[in-house]
Amino acid sequence: MALRRTGISRKTPLAPGKALPRRSRLASGKPAKRNPRHTGPSTTALKAVIGRCGPMCEWPGCRREATDTHHRLNRKAGGRRGEMHERINQPAWLLRACRPHHQFVTSPVGDDRALVIEMGWLLLEGQDALLIPVITRHWPGPIWLTNDGGWTTKPPMNESEDGL
Fold first, then answer.
1. How much is the pTM?
2. 26 domain residue, yes or no
C-alpha cells in the first residue's frame, strides 16, 4: 500500500491581525549567511614566519614557492580553542610549504608519517613546538624555531640548566 502525501492545510481561519508564519531561509533555498571564525595565525605571526623563510618552501632541498602555512600541531589534535589556539598560531608552531609538501605532511600514512614526525613537521598532542626540533632547508641539522620568527641550532635550556 503506497503512502499518500498531502499538503498541510489549515482547517481554521487565522485570527484577525495574525499573519502567516514566514518561511525560513532554508525553506526558501537561500543559503544562510555565516560569519566564518578566523582560526589561522595573525598577520604579525604570518609576517614573522615569512620573514624566516622568505618566499620559498621550508622543506629540505625544495626550491618551490611557499604557498601554504602549515600548523605543526593539527588543529584537530587539541588546538582549536582557548589557550592552545593562541599558541599554535605563533611562529614556532608554523612552517611555510609548497602545496605538494604541505599535502605530504598533512596526510601521511605508514613510514611517511614516521618520517614527518621524526623531522618535526608533525607534532603529537601534548608536544611543545618550542622544545621539538625541526629539519628544514635553513640548516643541515635540526633547528629549534622561536616565537619571534627566528630559529636557533641550540636546544632551549630546560629549568634545571638555567638555575631555576
1. 0.71
2. no
pLDDT band of residue 18 (cuts 50, 70, 90) is low
Round to whole Å and give the CA distance between 150 and 49. Answer: 8
Q: How confident is the model at residue 108 (pLDDT cuts 50, 70, 90)?
A: confident
- Alpha-carbon distances of 83 from 28, 117, 125, rounded to whole Å: 40, 23, 14
CA dist 140 and 13 (Å) reads 81
In a domain, 88, yes or no: yes
In tens, the pLDDT along 113-139 reads 999 999 999 999 889 999 999 999 999
Instruction: Report which of 84, 159, 160 is spatially closest to residue 128, judged by C-alpha positions.
Output: 84
Q: Is residue 107 part of a domain?
A: yes
State the alpha helices, DSSP H only, in the chain: 25-28, 43-53, 82-87, 99-106, 111-119
Q: Show the beta-strand stretches assigned E in the chain.
A: 68-71, 94-97, 144-145, 151-152
